[in-house]
Design brief:
Elements: E1 2-6, H1 11-22, E2 26-31, E3 43-46, H2 52-59, E4 64-67, H3 74-79, H4 81-101, E5 106-112, H5 121-141, E6 145-150, E7 152-154, H6 163-174, E8 176-180, E9 186-187, E10 189-191, H7 192-201, E11 210-214, E12 220-221, H8 222-232, E13 238-242, E14 263-264, H9 273-293, E15 306-309
Parallel strand pairs: 1-2, 1-4, 2-3, 3-15, 4-5, 5-6, 6-11, 7-10, 8-13, 11-14
Antiparallel strand pairs: 9-12
Helix pairs in contact: 1-7, 2-4, 4-5, 6-9
C-alpha cells in the first residue's frame, strides 16, 4: 500500500516507517526536517503540519495515513499550551481534512494511555480532543481509523524528551540519576522496535475503527529500574530522589473510567528491557567518547532518494 507517515523523522515515527518499508509498503514521510534515518526507497516530504496545502499534497495517493506529529513532552506542554494545541490538535485536524478529501482508506493516530488519566496536563487534553475529532470524522465522513494509545517507550533514536534516554545520558555524563518522586511509580515500558511492529500489525482488518493499547507486558517500579541501571554501570552512580514539583505524571496507573475503552495488542516476542537498556547505554557511551574527542557535533546521514519541500 501507499502509506504517508506524518512525523516520520522522529523517534517512533521513523521506526514505524522502517517496519512499513520492510513489509513491502511504499512509504512517504512528511516532517519539518528531513529524516536522518530515511531509507533510499522512501520518499521525504519536508513541510509544516499547520500548512494546509502542504498537508493536502502529502496526502495525495495515500491509502493509509499515520500521524505521529505532536508536542509530546508533558512538562514542555505545561509551559506551552498554545503551541501544544496548534501542533497536536489543529495539525491533526489538517491531516484529517486532507485524508477525508483524498479518500484515504484509514487514519492511524498516535495517542497515549494518558487519555485515561487525570494527569498529563495539556498533552492529555490535546490527545483526548484529537480522539473525539477522529471519531466524528468517521461518523460524519466515513473516514476509518485506528487509534494507538502508547504507554512508555524507550530505545534508540530518542532524545532528551524521553525520560529513559535522559537518565541514561545523565548517568554516563554526571555519574548520577535524579528522579522526582519516591521510586514507587509503576510503568509498563515497551521498546520502540516492539511498539513499531505492533503499530504496523494493526493494519489488519480486525483493528479498523478500534482503539488499541500498545505498552509493555510487565510493570516495573521506577526504583527497581534505577537499581538495574546502577548495577549495569557497576554501581558507579548515585541515585537521588527529589520532591515532585508538578503532579502531571501518573504514579500507579493512568486509568480512570472512560466509556471508549481499548484493546491491548501484544506481540509474540518482546525485547528484554535489560538488553534494550544496555543497547542504549552502549550507544550513549560511544557518543560521549566521540564528543570528548571532537569539537564537531555528530551528524546524521540521510540516504534519501527524494527530499523536497512541499509547497
Amino acid at each position: 500500500m501507499n502509506i504517508t507517515v506524518f512525523g516520520g523523522s522522529g523517534f517512533l515515527g521513523s521506526h514505524v516507517a522502517d517496519v512499513l518499508t520492510s513489509r513491502g509498503h511504499k512509504v512517504a514521510i512528511f516532517d519539518k526536517v528531513p529524516s536522518p534515518y530515511l531509507q533510499k526507497n522512501q520518499d521525504m516530504l519536508v513541510g509544516d503540519v499547520l500548512d494546509e496545502k502542504a498537508v493536502r499534497q502529502a496526502a495525495k495517493g495515500a491509502e493509509v495515513i499515520y500521524n505521529f506529529i505532536a508536542l509530546a513532552d508533558i512538562d514542555e506542554a505545561c509551559l506551552r499550551p498554545v503551541e501544544t494545541t496548534q501542533v497536536n490538535v489543529l495539525g491533526n485536524i489538517n491531516i484529517l481534512e486532507a485524508a477525508r478529501a483524498e479518500k484515504v482508506g484509514r487514519f492511524v493516530f498516535s495517542s497515549s494511555v494518558y487519555v485515561y488519566s487525570d494527569a498529563g496536563s495539556f498533552y492529555r487534553s490535546s490527545k483526548q480532543a484529537c480522539e473525539l475529532f477522529i471519531e466524528n470524522y468517521q461518523k460524519i465522513y466515513g473516514l476509518d481509523f485506528t487509534i494507538l494509545r502508547y504507554g512508555s517507550l524507550y530505545g534508540l533514536r530518542s532524545d532528551e524528551r524521553n525520560w529513559i534516554y535522559r537518565i541514561l545520558k545523565q548517568a554516563i555524563e554526571e555519574k548520577k540519576i535524579t528522579r522526582e518522586g519516591n521510586g514507587e511509580e509503576l510503568r509498563e515500558y515497551i521498546h520502540v522496535q516492539d511498539a513499531a511492529r505492533l503499530s504496523v500489525d494493526i493494519l489488519d482488518e480486525q483493528y479498523r475503527n478500534r482503539r488499541v493499547i500498545i505498552s509493555g507486558n510487565e510493570r516495573i517500579k521506577i526504583k527497581d529500574l534505577l537499581v538495574m541501571i546502577k548495577e549495569m554501570l557497576k554501581n558507579d552512580i548515585e541515585i537521588e530522589y527529589l520532591p515532585i514539583k508538578r503532579g502531571e505524571h501518573y504514579e500507579i496507573t493512568p486509568y480512570v473510567f472512560n466509556p471508549q475503552m481499548a484493546t491491548k495488542i501484544q506481540g509474540n516476542e518482546y525485547l528484554d528491557m535489560g538488553q534494550g537498556i544496555l543497547h542504549i547505554l552502549g550507544h550513549l557511551h560511544d557518543q560521549h567518547i566521540n564528543n570528548k574527542n571532537s569539537s564537531q557535533p555528530p551528524s546524521g546521514k540521510s540516504t534519501a532518494r527524494i527530499v523536497y519541500k512541499v509547497k
